[in-house]
Amino acid sequence: MSSHHPLVIGNWKMNPATSAEAKALFLAVRKKVKRDAPVSVVVAPPFPFIPDLSRLSPGGRLPLAAQDVFYEDAGAYTGEVSGSMLASLGVSYVIIGHSERRALGETDAQVNKKILACLRRKLTAVVCIGERERDLRGDFFSVVEGQLRALCTGLSARQLAAVVIAYEPIWAIGTGKTATPEDVKEMQLFITSVLVKLYDRALGKRMRIIYGGSVKPDNAAALHEAGGMQGFLVGGASLKADDFGAIITSVIS
Ligand code: PEP
Hints:
Blueprint: E1 7-11, H1 19-32, E2 40-44, H2 50-55, E3 65-66, H3 83-88, E4 93-96, H4 99-102, H5 108-120, E5 124-129, H6 140-152, H7 157-161, E6 164-167, H8 181-198, H9 201-206, E7 208-212, H10 217-227, E8 231-234, H11 241-250
Parallel strand pairs: 1-2, 1-8, 3-4, 4-5, 5-6, 6-7, 7-8
Helix pairs in contact: 1-11, 5-6, 6-8, 8-10, 10-11
The chain binds phosphoenolpyruvate.
């Protein structure tokens, strides 16, 4: 089991509409993060709000994540944002391979290159994997294993240990359908067993694996206690400071 504090990341997706609203939400969330609480809380706003929010987070009390990164460091890549740009703005985490980005065409190979870009800039990559749907035969385990193998390509155990894996079954994202704590536990054991096969037991124990998919104040405690993962990636509920605060509280045992 990882020795880190639980990690709770709020993925704001393409919200809110203005920088003023983003600052208000950030300050409301920051109030929910008690100094010295045994939890790491991170928010992932849209790119344009990062500079303003970075100024509101001296000392990194509420670190920032970006919702994506490009894998090249500079050049003729219109519309893209590099790891060095993010690092220069004080960003410390990057969500990679979110299913909403994969749905827009992001491939496993690009996800792997983006992880390497994060490692070059000492940004913590939070890499999303998860099946589109479940089937009774359990074929979805092969989908997850395929994504895991692809993201690990060319990474040493030391490099992978700096990465966070977010298991996010697509059918549970933004749908109100949540995996049961038993499903989450089963997947935590499965992901760990694949990592042990690809690397070794030491890495399997060290890896941080978090769950995402319709985590709400009323299911967070059960998912955390019985799910066995090291935190949550939260979408919709991270836009309401009270709900996000309740989820943060639920992982502090
Ligand atoms: C997400 O955006 O990663 C997510 C898990 O969303 P939601 O919590 O709304 O399902």
